[in-house]
Specification:
16-stranded antiparallel β-barrel; mainly beta; 2 helices
Length: 312
């Protein structure tokens, strides 16, 4: 389950690998844009930062198109810029993406390579879900990525993760449960669970309670936040409204986190607005978001982004 393409041969020479990947990506993008039906070209910019001074910036360009009624394929190129106090690195990620939908089943895959700071690693994700009944959806996914911090880039720390989940809901109530395992290349294994229950107060507004719990087999590695045990419980409000041509979605919550038995406050919030292409809005798609969370004592993480695509 955790095996991906092994990084060898061509990518051992990073400069040669960079040049070939860039030319190959350009060639594939040009070919795909000509050959695919319902071609969509997009660009997006994303930024995250934290209270420790770390900043991650990425600019993503992509082209996708339909090969059959149920299957969409595409290519994506990301320019990466990681920095913190007195340190910075630049790199890129190239990937091949596939979306397949047939009846009650949906499959998504994003497979490629990440190159930054002298590290060239296979990276990506595969996700699938199936609606087993009117009220129940089951899903599973795997992913592999390089850590997007200084220790991750400098020490070449990456992770392989797998998770399974189930979601049940009716017109008013909903319950979600997830179990997962993440294996880091520094020999730490993190097993985690997520649970959420929510109730619809009025159309477009719901209240919820959620819990996130994990344990690390090798805590305090120094490469990332890794206590022996972490538990977080939050209570919040979520909303979803159609405003103008787009959908406005957001949430805000507050609660407590216990880190190796020590309690501290925790909160998250996020808002997003998305316009999807249709007969009214035309071929343009726009998505923007901003959010923040406090999942460690005295530590705040912020993220934002905007993406635009046009369908030909």
């Amino acid at each position: 389950m955790y095996c991906w393409v092994h990084e060898r041969s061509l990518y051992e020479n990073e400069k040669l690998g960079d040049k070939i990947m860039k030319w190959l990506t350009l060639l594939l993008v040009m070919t795909a844009s000509i050959a695919l039906a319902d071609t969509s070209v997009g660009i997006g910019t994303f930024r995250s930062s934290d209270s420790d001074g770390a900043v991650v910036r990425s600019t993503v360009t992509s082209v996708t198109g339909s090969v059959t009624e149920n299957t969409t394929i595409g290519l994506s190129h990301s320019h990466l810029n990681y920095s913190s106090k007195g340190w910075s690195e630049r790199g890129y990620r190239d990937s091949f993406v596939v979306t397949y939908q047939q009846g009650d089943t949906t499959m998504l895959a994003d497979l490629g390579f990440t190159s930054i700071g002298g590290n060239v690693r296979s990276s990506g994700s595969i996700y699938g879900e199936h609606q087993v009944s009117l009220n129940t959806i089951v899903y599973a996914g795997i992913e592999r990525h390089l850590l997007d911090n200084q220790a991750g880039v400098t020490n070449g720390i990456y992770y392989n993760s797998a998770a399974i989940g189930v979601d049940w809901s009716n017109d008013l109530w909903g319950l979600t449960g997830v179990y997962g395992e993440t294996r880091f290349s520094d020999r730490n294994t993190r097993r985690y669970t997520k649970a959420k229950g929510y109730y619809t107060v009025v159309d477009g507004v719901h209240v919820y309670v959620r819990n996130y719990h994990y344990e690390n087999s090798s805590p305090f590695t120094g490469n990332y936040f890794a206590p022996r045990r972490y538990n977080q419980t939050l209570v919040g409000v979520g909303f979803r409204y159609q405003i103008g041509p787009g959908l406005f979605i957001g949430h805000v919550d507050h609660g407590a986190q216990h880190i190796d038995g020590k309690r501290s406050p925790s909160h998250t919030w996020r808002i997003s607005y998305a316009i999807s292409p249709d007969k009214t809005n035309g071929p343009l798609s726009v998505m923007a978001f901003i959010g923040a969370d406090r999942n460690q004592p005295g530590y705040t993480y912020r993220s934002s982004g905007i993406a635009i695509s046009y369908m030909f």
